[in-house]
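User: Fold this, then the next.

Assistant: Folding the first:
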Amino acid sequence: MIRVIDTLTMAYTKLRTRKVRTAFTVAIAGILFGLVMAIVIISDGVFMSVERMTQKSMTGRFIVGGSTAYQDVGDVSRDQDGIAEALLRHKTLVADKKAEAKRLGIEYDAAMDPSPVDTF
C-alpha cells in the first residue's frame, strides 16, 4: 500500500516535470469554473429581478388574451360538390369493405360506418 508521503512526493515530481501541462490544466479548469459561477450568478439575478418586477408592477393580476377559436366553416359545410364527393367516396369505401368481408367470409354491417355528412 502506498503511503501519504510517497503520494505527495510523486505528485510534486509530476508538477515539476510537467509544468506547461499542469499550468494549462489549471487555467482551463479555472476558466470553466468561473464561467459556471458567472452563469449561476447572472441567472439568479435575472430570476430575482423578474420576480420583483412582477410583484410590483402586476399587483397580482394576469394578462390574458382571447380570440375566436374557429373560423367560419359554413362555406365548407354548404359546398354541394364537396358533399357529393364525400358521399361518393363513402359509398366506394363501403362497397370495398363489403367485398373484402365477403372474401374473408365474415359479416359486415354497413350501418356501423358513420356517414361523412351529418344533417340537422
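Now the next one, as you asked:
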Amino acid sequence: MHVRSSLLLSAAAVCAVAYGAAVVLTQSPDEIPTAAQSSPVPSASANPHGYESILIEGRAVVASPDEVMRQDLDTYAEQHGQTFDETLQQFHGSTTFSELSNDIEADPHSGYVQSAWHSPDADKPWIRFTDKPSPAILLRIETEATGPVEVQWGAPLNATSLERVAQEIYGAVVNYPGVATATGGPESDGSIKIEYRLEPGATVNATQLRRAALRAGAKASPTKDVPVEVRLVDSPELQSSLK
C-alpha cells in the first residue's frame, strides 16, 4: 500500500530530507535537560479535527549543523528558493522529533496513533494518541522536543489498528473487479483516503465498492467497524506506476 502522506511519521520514517540525505541536526547528551519535573501542563482544547489537544513547549537544544550539513542545507535552500536561515528553521529539531515519535510508537502501551513534523493542516509538529498520554510521556515530550509540539488525543484506533484497517480497505479496493490501480492510506486528519483508477472501459458501482471496502476494514478493526472517515476517490488520471 502506498501511504499518501509522506509527512506522517512511522517507525521507519525520516522527518526531513535535503539533497538526498536526511537533515540531521544532532543533539549532544549534555544538552538534554535533566529536570525531573515538567512545567505545568496547559489546559486541553479541541483542535480543528475534533481531537482534544494541549501544546507542550519542548526545552531541548539542538546543536549547530556541521560544515557538511551546512552544505546540504545550502543546496536544499537553493533548490527550493529559500534562504539558508529559512531552511535551517524548517528542519530545526526534525530529527530529534522523529526519534522521539518513533520511540513512543514502539511502546505498545502509549496509545500512539500518528505524528507529523509538518502537515498541510497544522503549523507546528504534532503527535496523536488514542487516550490522553501519561504524565511520563508528556514529560518526555517536554524534555526531548526542541520546540512546541501539539499533543492530541481521542483517536478511535491506535497506529497498528489504523494501518491494518487501511491496508484491508486498500486491498479490497485495488482487488475489486474493474479497478486497475489504487493508492492511499491514513491521512493527517486521521481519516483513510484511497484513490483508484478503473480499467479502460470498466464500470464500477461506487456504493458496492464502498460497502466491500468497509466490510474488509471492519474485519480488521478491534471495534468490529470502521470508526474513522473513509474516502474512496475515483481518479482517472492516477498513474499505474503508483503502488
